Amino acid sequence: MMSAVIKNVTRAMAAFGLVAGVMAAMPGSARAAGDVHGCSEGQYCFYSEADFQGKKKEVRLQPYTCYKATVGWPDGSSSRPVGIVNNRTEISQLEGFDNDACSGRPYAHLRYREGVARISDRAKSFRVAPRCDIGSVCLYENKDFSGRRWQINPTHTNRCFHAGDDVWGHGFYNATRYTATFYRSVFCTMLPTTGQAPGSFGTFDEKVHLVKID
């Protein structure tokens, strides 16, 4: 497996102080359908130069795995990337962390079919995660994070939150800065799960319905 790489990933790039560009492949280009900046459908791509130029590395990064900010290029050399594209899948995002261990909450993320043309030095590591906005709690219909996705934006601690009576999911992502406890009932008093740390995501065998942050 390649030792892959990131420097900076985010959808709202200006909010994270990035000099970046996000856009799909231009109509009429010679690229294959589904390509973004020359990055094949189903891949993450890293570039050695700004504006998606220079050497390119296409990879399928694994969820739950932390990658440090170094890329092994096809010519055998290695360096930090300057550009990056997420063309993997609509249910995933690529997250940047300002530490080497992908610990805590990410400070930025890159959604499907988005790219960063020039990335900063802040990110030290990255990982693949299910799609969820920073500061939110997300529930997913299926264990592979596919199907329906519900996003909850807790405004207070020690309060029960849900996104509707029909919200029941096997997957979760706690993208808040607090510990999140999920409940397998219609009240936040019955059948609680183990508290899930900030920045954690995973699945439950039984569907969960409600969340409380502490």
From TrEMBL:
InterPro entries assigned: G_crystallin-like
Signal keyword on record: yes
Keyword annotations: Signal
Signal peptide span: 1-32
KW Repressor (keyword) present: no
Protein name: Peptidase inhibitor family I36
Species the sequence originates in: Streptomyces bangladeshensis
